[in-house]
Amino acid sequence: MKGNIYLAAVIYTLGYLPFAVSLCLLGALLLTLLRFWYSHKWFLGVSLFLFILSIYLSPQTTAPSEENTLPEEYAGPAIIKSHPITKEFYTEFEVELSNQQMVLIRQQKVEQNAIKHGAVCLTEMSIEQVNQATNPGQFDYRSFLNHQGIQGIAYDATIEECVGSSFVSPLYEYRDRLLEQIDDVFSPNTSMWMKALLFGERSNFDDQLMETFQFWNLSHLLAISGLHVGLLLALSYAVLYFGFRISKESAMNILLVSIPVYIVLAGSQPSVIRAGLMAVLVILVTKLKMTVKLLDVLAIIYIISLVFDPYLFYQLSFQFSFLVTCSLILSKQIITTDGWLWTSIKISLISQLALLPLQFYHFYYTNVLSFLLNLLFVPYFTVFMLPVLITLLLLQLLHTPFAVLLEKLFIWINQPMMDALFGLEQFSIAQWIVGKPSILVIGIYYVIFLIMMAMWNRGKLRFAAVFAIALIGCWWMQQALPYMDNAYRITMLDVGQGDSFVIELPRRSGVLMVDAGEEVVYSHLDQSNRNTKNIIQPFLWSKGITQIDALLISHFDYDHVAGGKEIMDSFKPKGLFIAERQDLEPITRYFGDKYQPIHLMHGHRLQFGGGTIEVIAPKTNRSSGSENNHSLVFILEVDGHRTLFAGDLEEPGERRILQRNLPPIDLLKVAHHGSKTSTSEAFIREVGVDVKNALISVGEDNTFNHPSQVVIKRLEDHGIKVWRTDTHGAVEMIYKNGQSTFSPFTP
């Protein structure tokens, strides 16, 4: 069975899929390898047992039932399931309630060693259900927590009478003391790197550093991986064997005991667990003088990890770690046939090709120049950073003055390297934004990838090159799909109490955006582009959109325009359009002097690909003191379908535009978030004759009590279906072949 245990790992993975899909794939796998299974019946039995075990253990079958819903209030015993992690403003840890549900607790203040891993405490808490994502492409925090087995969050719970602790609790407490000691001995910059690369503690990293490493696809260097563990074990083995003259057998025994300890000290991250357990198996195999292939070792570790923690499957670090390790093991013959430089190039290339579909699926882009930076920074971290930091750690435990001297060398070399990285301009050309690929495209990619690697491994370089081009072709095909789609789309994004609409014309002949509002909530001064960065940009990237043709700003209220400059900077619209106005101060306030907007007023017509915009208002450049009634109002017509965008127009403004013989309207963007000062009865009687659907962008539980129930009833009385972001999340209208369909993002 040597080299085939990966089949059992594949079958175990099927248990995480929907039951019908997993059965179909299992049947296909069994039929494809029928002769193999027939000659290895016992292995077939073990694999099928693992499949059943996976179905039983996978979170989709172990999730709480509807009858066992998460309580809003809880008073009773709870088990501390994770060691407390202290962040800038709070400390958080996980607890298990008496009904076996998991809750994340965040406390503003926690006394040192008051909360111990494994302790049973009496608790009182108010539990909140985490909000789910309401826009396509948006990070879904609820899903993120659920995939860790966490059903809710409690803030500042009452915790008392804690009893006991787990056997690993002393290790966690020692880890805390060690991290404090590192802070006391070394400068903040050095301690930041040491804690991150040796103990998995990255809370001290600032946003600029994280964003820079993410942009250049270097984030893997900030997480403890097999490289870190391998170097640490190699150094430890060398010290034991050559320094203390301990026998090989005794040195391996010490390492076997030390590895689980280090896994805990390093924060029990998925990549550390994988690397640590793999090292344990390799040492055991060596001690027992067995011959086991590395791929089999990896498959065994994969299955064991998921049996003990089924939620690991959903963690990206777990997926990335195993996928890259598996790819490199399968490519061993390719990698080890050349010198150091070519070996480094091949490792970097194979790793990035293996991860590319996951990067596009989760982040929608990759960095095409990161390949070059990995060639520089991977050796730098391997040869310099990690060995020096490990040495610093040992020296500060043995002789602090020597550690301080070595730290000066570390800072002298490392600081210029980091400054050089930060100084690199983040070229937009380096970002290849493809969008969120379909599962079909991902499947095709991996089939081609495996064929390419097989050809390369056999030395058939010409065939491998052809399949390499086909690999890139998968993503070109993904990018080309929108240009073959005849549908016309309007997406009303859920940006809270604000407005933002994205319009995709047929065959991607144009992409327009109406408003880029930010919600005035809590401290918007600290997150001035919250909607732009967390909602609008991820949505556009998930669609593979890197440039828009026009940004139309209805008026200069914060909830409609605040993200406009960020959109102009990031997506380079060919035109910025606003309502004709005399007062230019708001333009400077929101856009500075960099962009010169095009002023529009009644009578102007614009053509974008397959769409035409007819401007209805304003008719004058004077706002008359009301920004709302000076909104840019226009009709967008595509293939005979007309949508009226009314900005924040109020009743006086509505009366003015009713005098202009409007054509029949199919879809209405309701003005002013459904306020009672807009969408009057007279306006609906005139405009709403042919309207069947209306869109209202409004924040959930907003302080303005929008939308007005009077307006909602008025629309419904005229037979108009109302779609609103506070109840439906983002709403997409798709118009094709004379028919329009509406798809809310949340049911």
TrEMBL record:
Transmembrane portions of the chain: 6-30, 42-59, 220-243, 272-288, 295-312, 347-365, 371-397, 439-456, 463-481
Subcellular location: Cell membrane
Keyword annotations of the record: Cell membrane, Membrane, Transmembrane, Transmembrane helix
Pfam family, one: DUF4131
Domain Metallo-beta-lactamase: 497-700
Domain of life: Bacteria
Coiled coil region boundaries: none
Topological category with respect to the lipid bilayer: Multi-pass membrane protein
InterPro entries cross-referenced by the UniProt entry: ComA-like_MBL, ComEC_N, Competence_ComEC/Rec2, Competence_DNA_uptake, DUF4131, Metallo-B-lactamas
NCBIfam families named among the record's database cross-references: ComEC_N-term, ComEC_Rec2
The protein's name: DNA internalization-related competence protein ComEC/Rec2
Organism expressing this protein natively: Allobacillus halotolerans
